[in-house]
Specification:
This protein is mainly α and 64 residues long. The protein has helices at residues 2-26, 30-63.
């Protein structure tokens, strides 16, 4: 149960950061937008990418 709460909490934070990045872009602050997007992309590749690929492979195996 804790893992599910943890996952939704992080999802909400990521959506909030994306929203703030686009809000900054529409306010004319392209540098802040680029910095937030670069940090989110780095976070994805450092922390999440390997696990996302594993989960995709696991889902494919269960379908076959």
């Amino acid at each position: 149960m804790f893992d599910l709460i943890f996952a939704f909490f992080h999802l909400a934070l990521l959506i909030g950061l994306l929203g703030y990045a686009f809000y900054s872009l529409f306010q004319g602050n392209a540098l802040r937008f680029a910095l937030i997007i670069l940090c989110l992309a780095g976070y994805y590749f450092i922390a999440l990418h390997k696990n996302v690929k594993k989960e995709i492979q696991r889902k494919r195996k269960t379908k076959k």
